[in-house]
Amino acid sequence: MILTTERLLLREFEESDWRAVYAYQRHPLYLRYTPWSNRTEMEVRVFVQTFLSWRAALPRSKFQFAVILRSSGELIGNCGIRTTAGKSWEADIGYEYDHRYWGQGYATESARALLAFGFGELNLHRIWAHCIAENTGSSHVMEKIGMRYEGRFYEAEWMKERWWDTLVYAILDREWMAHTK
């Protein structure tokens, strides 16, 4: 499966993609809002293998895409959409990028493609996302794609020896349709 945008190709992961993922997941800026303090080659191989295994599930409920620059063929991150267990009408989205490509609109572009896929192909009613409250770049992406702020969960996630607040955003199918007209 492949989704295309103006500048990006969102394609299924290939086993060899682990190298590019490993290159950006080791960087301290990437690690800042993740549960990991560092990444090993084996951890990243397992990470990518998980996405490969999702492809075999029937019915399919999780889609994770390698994000490729159409101009150069370079893998710059990944994004995904996953239906909520027991709720085939709802899914969450997520994205992560090599820090060298932050602030250039790639996360917004790929997140819009995920919404279009979720509402258009998966016939979802609601799509939600969350981020660490301090990760303002991620919350701005959610706002730019028309997601509505639903709330702040105080000290909802424990990682790196501290509690972190999380923000939740969502959008309904009818809101997406109105947003895209």
Write out key terms for the chains shown.
181 residues; alpha+beta; Aminopeptidase; eight-stranded mixed β-sheet; 6 helices; 8 strands; 32% helix; globular
What does this structure look like?
With 181 residues, this protein is an alpha+beta fold. It has helices at residues 18-25, 28-31, 41-54, 106-120, 136-144, 173-180; strands at 2-4, 8-12, 62-69, 75-84, 87-97, 126-132, 148-159, 162-172. It has an 8-stranded mixed beta sheet with strand order 1-2-3-4-5-6-8-7, with helices on both faces. It is globular. The relative contact order is 0.14.
Uncertain residue ranges: none
Mean pLDDT, to the nearest integer, reads: 94
Report the sheet-strand fraction. 35-45%
Label the CATH architecture: 3-Layer(aba) Sandwich
Q: What is the terminal-to-terminal distance?
A: 26 Å
Number of helices: 6
Largest sheet: 8 strands, mixed
Helices and strands, in order, run as: EEHHHEEEHEHEEH
Q: What's the CATH first level?
A: Alpha Beta
